[in-house]
Amino acid sequence: MEKAKKTVYSGIQPSGTFTIGNYLGAMRNWVPMQDQYDCIYAIADLHALTVPQVPAELRKRTYESVAMLLAIGIDPQKSILYVQSHVPAHTELTWLLNCNAYMGELSRMTQYKDKSERQGKNIRVALFDYPVLMAADILLYETDLVPVGDDQKQHVELVRDLAGRFNQNYSPTFVLPEPYFGESGTRLMSLQDPSRKMSKSDENQNAYVSMTDQPQVIRNKFKRAITDSIGKVQYDKTSQPGIANLMDIYSSCTGRSYEEIEKEFEGKGYGDFKMAVGEAVVEVLEPIQQTYNELIKDKANLDNLMKENAQKAAVRAQKVLRKVRRKVGLVG
Ligand code: TRP
Known about the structure:
Layout: E1 7-12, H1 20-36, E2 38-43, H2 45-48, H3 55-72, E3 80-83, H4 89-98, H5 103-107, H6 110-119, H7 125-139, E4 145-147, H8 153-169, E5 178-180, H9 215-223, H10 241-254, H11 258-264, H12 270-297, H13 299-328
Parallel strand pairs: 1-2, 2-3, 4-5
The structure holds tryptophan.
């Protein structure tokens, strides 16, 4: 049976305050997709646990993540927005998929290689298994499209391998998902070192702009952003990576092209440009922050919403899980 709308599934870890890098590069693209697709968005709290977490912090950030996704325009009337761990089918399918996943293919995941190096001697089993949990997320909802950044592309490939193998070994069960790259894959860089990705875990707070930074803080961070000594606003990633990054941010916030920006700041100094970028970011974030501040105050409302959405998700996930259980020979 042809579905009326394709299903889109994506997840985000509640592992820190979101930055404008997360927002402009990924989360923002989720909003317009809601009109075109059947969208399911998850707060991947179980994925966050693959690295050590402070329990109270994780709990707090889970609420904050839900509130922030609502604030940017994820609409639970149109989409499902839920917390991964609220739907036990995820962990159950992870186990069943584990029984058909190979050590070799998981060891080849570059994210695992990078992250396990940082965990030192005591590497968590869960970190190794992370992509299988991600496969369970995606496969439980008969997902067609997975909007992801470059760093998750290899994981989506693995999901296809696992699903294809299962379909082969048993009989057609899973829909094979495809990665989906939005129109603009703006990958924002650190404001202090444009050779590094903008990251919420950067020890230098001036390197990133958090979605909840106060306007004055945002303006100051842009004032301090690293530029160069060339003194001309033009898009050249190699010789002017700092300016190129600021142009990306400005372009994302205002919709203006690089040429338009170059014209706008012809003959003007970096000071003016940086101030304008800061102002553009403030303009985008202010209405989001207002909504967010209202939402985060009302925990009962967020609890309700999480519960309702988890129920909706669980109904869909159960349908697929039941099929898988039967195919592998579990009773009932
Ligand atoms: N692993 C993803 C990340 O850290 C988050 C995630 C969890 C996800 N489950 C997913 C993304 C399913 C896409 C689809 O970015």
